[in-house]
Amino acid sequence: MATSTIYARVPSEIKDKILELAKTTGKQQGETVTDLLSQGLQFPEQLKKLSQAQTSLQKQEELNRTLTTELEKVKTELRIARQTVDVAERAKGHLQRVLNTQVGTCTFQGCGAPINLYSFAYQQCPQGHTGTTKLFDEYQSAKGAGDFLVAGLAVIGGVALAAELLGDKSLQ
């Protein structure tokens, strides 16, 4: 690069600062002036890059806020879904216990298979025999036994309908 001399009137306080900077950096006075002029000429470009970086940072921060809000919303939905599943699992367990209550035995040719409330509702033993149920005495003569069976059958009807609609055969 060719060099040329520029003559300029420089206030003494700026000249003193240039001399001080030259001593600090270990450079010649002319080299220090050249560095300062070069940096000054690069300043507008650097200022533009800084402005672009700040704009990009603001956009990223806004995106982070949006994503954080969405994440919290999804976490809340997941927590509610887990709670719903927990309640449904407990209800399913309770219904399975009710449906598995043994209420009699199959009387078809000495089969003797235990009949639970679910099998009783469908009038079929686990071996496939139909209409051959002998209820245990406590369900034939005890006060409220009929109410238990009717309530159990109502539960079975609702559960069977829900299971059929949901395609869930695990209650059988």
What does this structure look like?
The protein has 2 domains: 12-88; 100-166, no CATH class. Helices cover 67% and strands 6% of the residues. It contains 5 helices and 3 strands. The protein has helices at 12-25, 29-99, 117-121, 137-140, 145-166, and strands at residues 102-106, 114-116, 133-135. A 3-stranded antiparallel sheet has the order 2-1-3. A hairpin with a 7-residue loop joins strand 1 (102-106) and strand 2. The longest helix has 71 residues, at 29-99.
- Order of strands, widest sheet: 2-1-3
Measured distance between first and last alpha carbons:
92 Å
Q: Which ranges are low-confidence, i.e. pLDDT below 50, for 5 or more consecutive residues?
A: none
Query: Major sheet, described briefly?
Result: 3 strands, antiparallel
Q: How much is the average pLDDT?
A: 81
- Name the structural class: mainly alpha
Series of H and E elements: HHEEHEHH
Number of strands: 3
